[in-house]
Each structure stands twice: as structure tokens, then as C-alpha cells.
Amino acid sequence: MVGAPELTGASYEALIAAWHAAAALSGLALREIPCGGGEPLFIAERTGTESGRCVALSAGVHGDEPAAPWALLSLVRDGLLDGGFDYRIWCCTNPSGYRMGTRENGAGLDVNRSFSRDGRSAVTPEARAVERENRGRRFELSLDLHEDHEAGGFYCYEPVVDGCAPLGRRVVQSLDDAGFPVEDLHDAFDLGYPAEAGHLRLLQRGRVLPDVQAEVRHFDGLPYSMYLLWTGVAHRTMTLETPRSRSWQERVAMHRVAVVTALDALREDRAA
Which of 42, 90, 101, 144 is least buried, going by the fewest C-beta atoms within 10 A? Predict the structure, then answer.
């Protein structure tokens, strides 16, 4: 699988223009979502599959992780999404951060720590817009694409649901098979958890398995994936992290492998 061209300096306008073109060619409906107090967001959607099973995809919640939104775009542009699912795709959930190349939005807030436990009272306008649009929806899986500035290899977060986390092992194996580096996670690796919060997750090679109940009790503002699980909007979530230290092409390709594998695993898990 090849990735997108080198676009490390591409503007937000270029990203959205590329989404308009890709959506028109692939039959997705692209909508502008008002974001009171912030820049509008964009959703690309595909509905009407026989299964009716919907997957949520997102990227760009941290503006200094630019390969993730372009990797998400490339999956649509190149027809790599499994045709057996409906999709809701958030093209970039932090436009102001993307423009500035910062983790935070234009107000200096981390959007990915601003979601609420009730799905109605997020702190940032971006998170409020996402919560508003998700009300009444149900996703079988959510995949959120990120990059990690400290990592040397790929890893993913997969919260344990119903006593299992069935997708991540397949994803890590696919990255291995494709010859990409996988992060050997350990307690000293910085995952953004406080030193006293190690009990909130289990570490494996290439995988972080968070305890949803414990993490929600520990943090005030929730990450996107935890909000989805806690409010019942998504049944399962994965957060995919590629290493910012690697080339643009590698980071895009890692995300493509991970997303395609996760969707394959979801389909096969349901068919079993």
C-alpha cells in the first residue's frame, strides 16, 4: 500500500479541497458542521449498506499530527474502506490547531481532553459539535488516527469491552508483516498518564489496553474514544498512533494498514 504524496506543509484549505474531490468521486456526502465559537468541521458519510453497521473514523484532533488526516483521506480516495459498512468520517476535528501546527486548538485547549461524560457538555466548541452530531447514533467501531512525537514505532489503544479487546492483536501483526516498526511499550514510556495512574491500563507490545471505568473516574475531561464508550455511542474504539519520527510516507502507510486490518477483523469477528 502506498501513501499520500509528501504533504507535510499542505494547508487546511488544501486538505478540505481534497476531501471535496475525494467525496465526489467515492459517493460520500460531505457536510459542513457548525462549530459555535470555532471553525466549522466537516463530516463525510456513507449510508445505505445492507448491513446497516456503521463505523466512525476521525483524525486531526491534535494539529501537530498532520499525517493522520491525510492518511484518512487516502483511505477514501483509494477505495480502501470495506464496502460492507456505513461510515461517518470526521475529516479534521481541530482545524485551528492544524493551521497552527499545535496540539491545542486556537484557544490553547486540548480538544482530546475536553469531551464530557454526558455527551452534552464538552468544554471546547469542537468537542461540543462532535457530541451534538453523535446524539442518537450508534457505531460498531470508532477508529481515531493520531501520531506520537516520542514513539519509534506504531502502537494502538484498545479499551477492553465485554472482557476482550479483539482487534488490536491483528492490527499489530499486520504492521509486523508489512515490515513497519512496532513500539515495545513499557512503564517508562510516556503515554500521558500521571505517574500514579499506571493501574488505568495494561501494556503489551504495540497495544495499550485501558480500563474504561477506571480511566473515566480518574480524568476530568475525556478523550474522544472514552467519551464514545462511556456514553454508548460506540461499542468498541481504537486509537491508532504512528511514530512522528518516521517519514511521511511511512506514517500514512502505517495508518492505512492499521485501518484496513481493523475493518477486516471487525467483519470477520462478526461473521464468526
Answer: 101
